[in-house]
Amino acid sequence: xxxxxxxxxxxxxxxxxxxxxxxxxxxxxxxxxxxxxxxxxxxxxxxxxxxxxxxxxxxxxxxxxxxxxxxxxxxxxxxxxxxxxxxxxxxxxxxxxxxxxxxxxxxxxxxxxxxxxxxxxxxxxxxxxxxxxxxxxxxxxxxxxxxxxxxxxxxx
Length: 156
Prior knowledge:
The protein is mainly beta. Helices cover 9% and strands 49% of the residues. The protein has one domain: Pnp Oxidase, Chain A, CATH 2.30.110. It is built from 2 helices and 12 strands. The relative contact order is 0.21.
């Protein structure tokens, strides 16, 4: 019986990952969200025999909708995402649109899952709150738009 088929296999742990922005690596990411895939649903009401109404659900116009990618990480000097965002603000969208990858790896450091995003660009960059009572590092939340995503590895 292959490993994982009816036995306890090693799970994919969600704390080993980094972001590759067209060859520029951002490590130290604390959190990633927006990795959801949804299909629009169209409901049709049909009249049936004996005065019965029936609802039929079918996929809508968008077969797969994906969420905005959101990253949270500790800010650092010369953050490449700051220049990336500056290109968007300056209207340099040809420079700003990049193919990026979120790469997850296992306990041995081998790549096991990759999300490849097409024509991605940062639509928002927000700093965490400052407080004189805090010992926490300053974080950045980066919201990234994209034209689509393909998943490679780990059950795909």
